[in-house]
Amino acid sequence: VSAESAHTATHRALERVLAFSDGVFAIAITLLVLDIHLPGEFEREASDAALRAKLAELLPSMVGYVVSFFVIGEFWRAHLGKFRRIVAYDDTLLMLNLLLLLIVGFLPFPTAVVARHTNTVSAMLYGGSMAAAGLVSAAMWAYAVRRGLTDVRETREMMRGLIGRLLAPALFLVSIAVAFVNPQTTERMWWLAIPAAWLARRLEPRPPVEP
Amino acid sequence: VSAESAHTATHRALERVLAFSDGVFAIAITLLVLDIHLPGEFEREASDAALRAKLAELLPSMVGYVVSFFVIGEFWRAHLGKFRRIVAYDDTLLMLNLLLLLIVGFLPFPTAVVARHTNTVSAMLYGGSMAAAGLVSAAMWAYAVRRGLTDVRETREMMRGLIGRLLAPALFLVSIAVAFVNPQTTERMWWLAIPAAWLARRLEPRPPVEP
Amino acid sequence: VSAESAHTATHRALERVLAFSDGVFAIAITLLVLDIHLPGEFEREASDAALRAKLAELLPSMVGYVVSFFVIGEFWRAHLGKFRRIVAYDDTLLMLNLLLLLIVGFLPFPTAVVARHTNTVSAMLYGGSMAAAGLVSAAMWAYAVRRGLTDVRETREMMRGLIGRLLAPALFLVSIAVAFVNPQTTERMWWLAIPAAWLARRLEPRPPVEP
Amino acid sequence: VSAESAHTATHRALERVLAFSDGVFAIAITLLVLDIHLPGEFEREASDAALRAKLAELLPSMVGYVVSFFVIGEFWRAHLGKFRRIVAYDDTLLMLNLLLLLIVGFLPFPTAVVARHTNTVSAMLYGGSMAAAGLVSAAMWAYAVRRGLTDVRETREMMRGLIGRLLAPALFLVSIAVAFVNPQTTERMWWLAIPAAWLARRLEPRPPVEP
């Protein structure tokens, strides 16, 4: 087997890792839509008022679906960005990726809980899941760069990217501590994840510009 | 990193965007089949008449499944057509695509509601969802062309395609207004979406003919 | 745009058609596993006897899952075989493919019904679904060959493949007629679909042998 | 049709086999997350204590999800490894692959049973499913090597890989026998599957090193 074909085999195997990951992301991102349905016994040809009341009951489920879609969508976008630069893999990277997918697949549950409840337990569950996903995501990147599995060579560029990736997990860890005092404040803090994600994106090593 | 490999990385990342999108489309299109099942407690070896009555009860679910399949199938076909011409992407296009997938993943719910109810609320829910999906779909195309992310260069061709893509959303927006007067008429208007889709397809920039 | 890139765009779009189809097949083939679960209220640490009794109740669901897996697996294998020879597509082929996926996504339902019931209605539902899937599958092939969307040139080879593909649908159509007299006989006739599939496979145009 | 294009057609068809397999793996691996949800009637704005009690009830479901994720993840990793070396396929290999996917799709069920019960029946169900998946996985590899569908040429290398692959199934078969005496011991034995998987990985034919 020549070096060329070994390279091709790695390339193809990496594509399978991504195809499998995309499959899990696609399932996780649509999962909460299953919560949005009228009860089977709901009478046919209901009046406007009855249907409007029923839809109002489903509102927390709809909010949960939209939030979950954008949160998991952002993790997917980060995964897409990382694997633009990752050109090889080993068993540890596969394991970290599996761990990330495990948490991402679980995210719809804490999102659904938080859409309906505001207390210390719900805040810990959601904050903890988000922090865990962010930390594993950052660990994957750090591992891949250190093991030379990426095409990024400059240490400074890598460090900046890593700092960006740790902003959101740090925010969520702090928010868990706040939840013991005031869960409402915790939920308000989470809105900071949006500028944190924006900043992380800006600090990311950019792909080389195409001519 | 040479220009060549940067081009390849973009190409591969774009393929992941499509693979992820196809995954969400595939899940959304099969989702309503979950509504079609016999209740677990349904007696084994039921008589012909009992089974026929049960199947008759499931008829609105089956109609919902078929309608949803063709509607989402048409959005998928439009997505396929658009991305034959889109050769690059940026964060905004990704966000618009995510928004489209969010609405497409939600479509089975209004379809199931409309299969069982005919009133102002159900008409607004379905008409609004369809208009939103169509508008986001058109916005994606307009954005991609303006930002030079496609291989379409001629402005006139682009304009024609855009007009076609706005026919169906305009129809659905008008139908919502009609729903306040007469929801039955709204549902009848939706059949016009079929010729509108056909016309949109004809106005679309055609892929270059293969020799 | 050169002929070369037009060819590449067609090739990539065709790959998306297949990726989307594979997604729907993968969902349809695993759908019946959702029927196999212990009721939530089932007591923890149940005795051997209680658990064995519960599993026995789930037996028709398990049989349904296995049958559905091999039936949909066979339709997938036929799809794989067809698209080894199909090198281009048009809107009609996309529509036929969508129709095939619609029926394949529906197949778990009649399979689950037949796993629990044996009467005229269940026999018509299952036999009719299988016949419809087989006929659409054959229509796709006939259309693709006639429109020159395949790399098969010899008419005789095409004809043999088509006869093979029509064996199973013909069997299911005959079985529906028999169901009005004796549904038990109908179910026994379905076993003939296994040799019919084997024969269809032998009559199929073989891919050219690799050296 | 030249040999070159026949080779390309095989390559593309093999990619579809993998895409379809990855789809089934992705669905199976996320399936148990569906068991983790709050009951719909669960009151909004529940107290901390009520929510904590509810989450505690869901703990076996969460354990089941995590175990299932890593077990199916390991089967997926083995599949990835095997198909790095498999360069062609025939109908028998497709059938074995389908059989493997059938068992993998079923694995969430015995995992959920074992997460809640410890008795002879649950031990047989889980041990039997795991042994079956391992044996089919090993059979796929043995068949592919014997039929020359891989790029592995050395018999010794193949034999070592096969011994590794049979360690875990042998362990599970022995554990079933033990279950008739003491199901608790059976469950403890299953932890040995982790070092067995590690050993199997070491004995696997390594992909050629890239320069």
Describe this entry's structure for a reader:
The structure is a homotetramer of 211-residue chains. Chain A has 211 residues and is mostly helical. In chain A, 76% of the residues lie in helices and 0% in strands. The first copy, chain A, is built from 9 helices and no strands. In chain A, α3 runs parallel beside α6, α6 packs antiparallel against α7 (155-179) and α7 (155-179) runs antiparallel to α8 (183-189). Chain A is globular and about 65 Å long. The two termini of chain A are 35 Å apart. The model of chain A has no long low-confidence stretch (mean pLDDT 86). Chains A and B meet through α1, α2 and α3 of A and α1, α4, α5 and α6 of B.
From N to C, what is the helix and strand string of chain A? HHHHHHHHH
Coarse morphology of chain A: globular
Mean pLDDT across the residues of chain A is 86
Most extensive interface, residues per chain? Answer: A-B, 41 and 41 residues
**In terms of structural class, how would the helical and strand content of chain A be classed?**
mainly alpha
Instruction: Please give the largest β-sheet of chain A.
Output: none
What radius of gyration of chain A results from the CA coordinates?
20 Å
DSSP strand tally of chain A:
0
Oligomer: homotetramer
Percentage of residues in DSSP E strands of chain A = under 5%
Query: Which percent bin holds the helix content of chain A?
Result: over 70%
Spans of chain A with pLDDT under 50 lasting ≥5 residues? Answer: none
Distance between the termini of chain A: 35 Å
- The helix count of chain A comes to 9
